[in-house]
Amino acid sequence: RFHRVHGANVRLNASRTRATRVESFANGLCFSQEPLAPGQIFLVEIEEKELGWCGHLRVGLTAHDPQSLEVVPEYSLPDLVNMGDTWVFAITRSHNRVAADGEEAPARARGPHWEPFLLIEQVRIPRDTLVGRSRPGRYSHILDDLYKMNVLPATARRSRIGVLYAPQPDGTADMHIVINGEDMGPSARHLPTARPLYAVVDVFASTKSVRVIPVEYGFPSLQTLCRLVIQKHIVHRLAIDGLDLPPPLKSFCKHE
């Protein structure tokens, strides 16, 4: 969930899993409720966009406890970064891949044999959860195969963006940004692991609303297993609306 401390223009829903910037283009800073564990990804999906602004979502990590901030900065870049011990990555429509020295960024196209797990250092994450999906709709069953091939632009609605840190042998860590199942590479190095690191999500400019996506690393939860059974026994996901289930459960069952 998102932390109770956030920017002045942010409104959280009751469960603190959705953050919406209600006015202007700034003061949209959010944090994870708890510090991240090594290799734990904080993943959000872009729910709403707002035309007329220049710039997109920004994500990263900070060693500042949000509760200790006297005032939440207006911007993650440069305000929060200038406070030190903060690393933020600006998401763009393209060219997000951070290439190592002497390395060329690989093509983004992915075929049907794309590996089911994303490997970052010693971290193994189910890639299917990391990739944006179409919402249930009249033609969503046609679009799903396209989304599985990772053709969503990074800044598009339903795109999923996450941040994590991977410990290194020298006792520091590298920050990795993951966009729709693809690791963008170490976008910051030599992060201190002695201090807790919180995720930073700046709902900035054309990005208006984001939703936290839970990620299961090992065995699926009972909730996920029940959703799979429900999805297996319906003709199409739109049929979930006709089931005698509470609205929050219907919403959960519609999502991949």
Automatic annotation (TrEMBL):
Pfam families: Neuralized, SOCS_box. Residues 221-256 form the SOCS box domain. Pathway: Protein modification; protein ubiquitination. Residues 1-215 form the NHR domain. It comes from the Eukaryota. InterPro entries: B30.2/SPRY_sf, Neuralized, NHR_dom, SOCS_box, SOCS_box-like_dom_sf. One of its GO terms (molecular function) is ubiquitin protein ligase activity. One of its GO terms (biological process) is protein ubiquitination. PROSITE patterns: NHR, SOCS. This is Neuralized-like 2. It comes from Aptenodytes forsteri (Emperor penguin).
